[in-house]
Amino acid sequence: MSEINTNIWGTSENWKDAVNYANDVPDKEKIQYASVDGTTWTMYNYVAGGRVNARQALDQSLCYGALGKDMPLSNIVNTAGAVGWREQEDGETPWRSYIANLQAESNQDKRTITNYAFAAWTTNSGINKEHGETLYMRSAQRNDRFHQFWYPDSKYYDLINWTNSEKEANPFIKSMPIARIPVKNMIAYPVVRCINDVEILNPTEKYIDLLNYIDTTTQYNYTNYPYVISVGLVFLTAQNGVQETINRNLTLRLNSCMILSPSNMLQNMPYYVYDGYDKNARYDGEAYNYASCIGKHYRNQVSCIMPIMGLINSPERNAPKFSSVNIKTGQSGEWTLFDVRFDLGTSQVATMGGGYELLMYSWAGKQPEIYTIQDSDPNHTDSQQYTNSTQYWAWHITASNVDTFREEVRQATAGFGLFFVEGAANGNLALDDPDMFLGILEDGVGNGKYSHGEDNRNQPQWNWDDMHENDYDPSNPPIIDPNTYNGSMSTGTLEWFQTATPKYNISFINYPKIIKKLWDCLALLPAGDPLADYCLDTFLTQNPIDTIVSLKYFPISEALGWGEAVTVRLGKFDTQVSALKAKNQILYDCGTILIYPRYGKGIATWLDKLTTITLYLPFCGTVSLEADKYMGRYVGVEYAIDLNTGNCSAYVYTYADTLGTEKLYTEVANGTCGIDLPVTGIQHITLDGQLYNATEQLKGMRVNAATQGISQLLALTSAPSQGLAGGLSQLAQTGGSLYNMLHNQDIAQYNLEHTQLPVKMIGTTGAATSAMLELYPTILIERPYTDGINENYFAHTNGYACCISDQVSAFAGYTEFANIDLSGFNATAAEKDMIRSLCSGGIYI
Amino acid sequence: MTISFYKTADDPKKLNKTFTNVGSGEATLSATVNNTDDTITLLSPAFIVASNTAYFTATHIYVNDLGKRYYYINNITLLTGGKLLISCSVDVLATYATEISNCIGTAMRSESAGINKIPDSKYPVDPCKFVLDALNYPRTPFTRMPTSPYILTTIGGEANE
ipTM above 0.95? Predict the structure, then answer.
């Protein structure tokens, strides 16, 4: 248990004895006050009085505990900013003024640890009093009578004088931190502040404990009050009595949870600096109360709860009134955005000061968008009524998310490390009852985990007298993993994806019609029109087959088309063949399979890790899955198919451990499932070229033949001495070229007459072989063979390898011990050696 | 001193043995073992007791006067005069069964605890034989009989959305 820091609280000689405590309470449990020099110490006094140094870590005795980074109060969204000050007319006395220049701030840097202390303000009238009277509680004891005490001091109302508050320090900062809370005599339960409607003027507001709120058989619950503004805590305690007859009949309504590290200027290092009378003071330098209850001055008011999530703070005397105009201004999933309006009367402005008007909220780590409060008029006078507004997100609870809500409330409550129940009806349960919960502290920090029932006995708080036995020291906080492991992955098709080339989904019935149309198009050629011009005009290309970019076959059962039926157009040519517009991408989830640890009957063992797992993915090949990673997990397969290219990707996923419903994609395999089909059609431009060339060649041949022929004949007749024979022989000698000429001419004629219709091929047959293999993703598992082993005999004569430390009696059957501590009984050294040797070699227990 | 004779069928390595009493008798410590020069010790004593055929089925003796110890009967020598020489050695497991049960130890092999938790080199997994199985996923997007499988991409016409 930490010692009382006398530098802060003063020495015990100055502590007053309380009055009205039971005579049978031992001296050590006397109620005491820390009232040093007759001054009641407040957070403000500590610094002003030099008892706490500014900008140093807050003393452990002032800090009740620590909240982890995922707790709502560690993620406060601050919608208000500095307080403006205006001097009084005398120019000397600062006048605590009004809301000015409030701006939205967000907690950009999440604190890994948030230090806090509870502060009491309004409590049950049976034992606590206010407005000038002494507030005290009696101490708690274990295994004996139950009392409560706040230690050291909880006398603070004396100084609050509302009629003269302008002379005082900000009463808001007078909240006294409760550093010691009797663990077993302060049971928390959450209360939900909710409204019934967001579409009507002046909705009805209720405060319902969690147990009733989730119960649809109660009069008021989430079905008729579905919009949650905030959740807070109320505490139950027993005034006296022994544990067996515990009767926690006193309700404690703490007003606030003081966040002792208000800004991120010193990460995890709370400090308190307050220049209360400096008109330039900024809130980012001050530790101040982040949470206050609503309706502070109403004792036993059901609305007085210590907010821990949702709307944290509000104007001191006036709860934020939900705007009477356009209450609901937005919706995002489960979250409803609506107006919150501040109404501050004239007198209230004068007495309150701007310190309260800090609208903050946090929803279990969810940080919706923040809205700025309108700037106020800096020239506002106190005689003027001030009204301003901002917006705020409320949580809409329905049957689909009520279980999530319940769990998050439990976690937010558990962060304080206290015993808690879900409603007042469970207030008298035993501390190890199944419906009694206890927040788990990790290195003294609450992260929202909790135990219940008999498991509570295993927590250190079970043996604590008060919460200050928590070893957490704000000056030496544990190193916290700053990461929140809530990442997830997802898949999705591309939106607004358009290609410049139209795609048609054609059935197998209409497919042959399209093929035939490719050959029919030339029949449409009007007589006399040049083929080239016709093709260009109709098909947008001189080559009709160029209108076809690709033809693919997809062996997919899902619909590839969508919308109304259309007809296939090749360029401008309407084939009149019916088709659908084709989709661009398809996503398909093939489901999951559990990789079941066979040898451990559900729990992975070393034998399961010898398993080889291969995942066959149609069209994408195989993927090896490591047994270490996937044993005991659900493994899913999702296909993404691109209908433009025919490519497909198989995504292998499993589920995250932290967020059990979030998919994590761990493997990707790629392949092609679209089968290219070859298409032939008239290669028109080639045809034209061939015809042209053939014609020109023939022309050329004829001209040449005629010219050369005449010259040859002239050559022949020019040599009469040679006579006809000579002429013939010359002709014969020259006949090769003449022959060739005539022959080439014939060839050219032949070519022209026999120009073949050129065809063009688009696409090649491919990927069809993959379609002939298995089409279902399949897991192939190869396991070690153990069927030949008699497990019972093996276990009885060898035992299984293990490394477990326990009492010998905890084991059964054949057991070998690496070491055994033979303390505690008398035997000779030789006998103990014998025992140790026997145990090492194996004994039967 | 009185010694009690017991028999048990339990393995000598068993911690909590089940004994059946077969008799008891007055015995004296023998100064030697088998009349040899071997001296007796607390952990390996020898007793001379009047003969009783029931003793021949015993496996253990219990001697309260020697620190409440159980002893294995190693040998019985028939002496003249109707006497038996019982040669023994201490059974530490039987003697200190309760105390050992309360001790804390680290087990490296156990019949009952931690089964298959850590790799076991003694576990006779068949090195040559494996079991091969297959699991099909419940759904697939693929089929060999699609009704509308063709995607024709052209130029002209209207772009797909």
Answer: no
